[in-house]
Design brief:
Cytochrome-c3 Hydrogenase, chain B; 5-stranded mixed sheet; 3-stranded antiparallel sheet; 13 strands; alpha+beta; 20 helices; Beta Polymerase, domain 2; 46% helix; 504 residues; single chain
Length: 504
Amino acid sequence: MLSSFENRLKDKFQDAFYSENGHFFLKDMGESLYEVINELKNQYGFIVLVATHELSDDRIAIQLSNLEFHKRIFVLCKAQDLLVKNINELFPMLNWYKNSCTSLDFSQCPFPRDYSISEEEELAREYLNLGPISPLTLNLAKCAVELDGETIKRFKIATGYHRTGIESSLCKRNFLQLSALLENYYSPMSLEMSFLVNHTLETMLGLNISLRAKAIRMVMLELSRIGGHFANFERIFSTLGLSLESHFVYGLKNSVHELFGHYNHSQYGEGIIKLGGLVHDLPVGWIARCLNTLSLLGQKVSSLKNNLTNSTFWMSKTETYKVHAGDALAFGFSGPSLRSTGVNYDLRKADPFYLYDEVQFDIPLGIDGTNYDRFLVRLEEVNQSIRIILQILDNMPQGEYLMGPMKEWKKLKANGQRAEYIDAVSKGLTFNSGIYYSSFESTHGELGLLLEVKDGESSPYSLSLNLPGRSFLCALEKLLIESSYTEISTSIASFGIEGKEVDK
């Protein structure tokens, strides 16, 4: 079926269509961009806008996903082509990407006259300017809110106040430096960022790491997922003033961080994953310590769930802000936020890597897409991550922990061949020209990396990160309407939006 699907695309788009590195591409769309994207969405099932990537020479790659075949297509165009028509009709995220750098005039009312209500009603409404440093928006962006009492009637977001230019900075570094730089910049997501970069480079090299390295990486990724969910719970409890529960999950989060600390003295798992494997093998006694920690976490997670579901205050504050499955797909949701609406899609099942197709685990789903649904999905994902880790530790394969060029360089250094070692590392890695994209299911959603490479170059020509928080923040402009303004911080926390995801 997949081959016939690809042939249909070839027949339709002919020379503009090509396949490269496992993904589909359409080039030089120009003024026909609107019609092409409309046809891909309605005729070929590419119903999810995953991300837009900035490439070299003022070009844009619009990444669309077909959930049935789990195939991605990258529509290449010029940046100005996004202005041809109101492309917001197809995907709301495209319009938001187009306007994300536009400054709102917050000195006056940023909203136009609302002719659907009388002038007296509009004059009775209040206007709030929030951020970019505001506890209500968790210091993410600058927001303008129009209120009727406590009810949000209109909501606008202006990003760009925390921009650091991380993507353009990384293009000036060689491939071997990307992992460490992203680990330091996205410190709570250090291990996931390190895995993303090294897994992408290994795929580009055609390097198949050992079975033991794969198993240990899976354990570390699931531990990072557990720690990320606990950090998310801590933020939610803090926004609601639940200090006791916040302190409780803070202790659970630290117990996960202690496992990373006993492995390589890190807090978030930074430095564990290296190109071709791991920094070193599992220390003696680490598996026993991990099993004890997981047993304790399982008991405390069950206790936390029972206490909160019996709390009328908790239920009243979290059974709010519903997101329907159609809206979640339209805004490009992924991860727990997508599954909380009832959409059964997880990259660990749809596109399994390493041993994910051999371990048994369930995909938790919500119903209404409320803050409460997102909490329950995350809570159950903690249990499923524990289940995955236990299966791997019970059947831990033997073998080497490091392979490929990094192992060879390590041997040179150990043998005292310092000049050869410095020369090899200085040359770095080179690849064939092309566009490479790799992604996986991170704590909050799909985390992806797109690299545009030129022949013989040891650094990326262009680089773009796909971070889940951008689509969540975009959705707030529409989906917070008719909600209470007191729900803003709780909703942002339940999505797990990080400040450094919004502005790159």
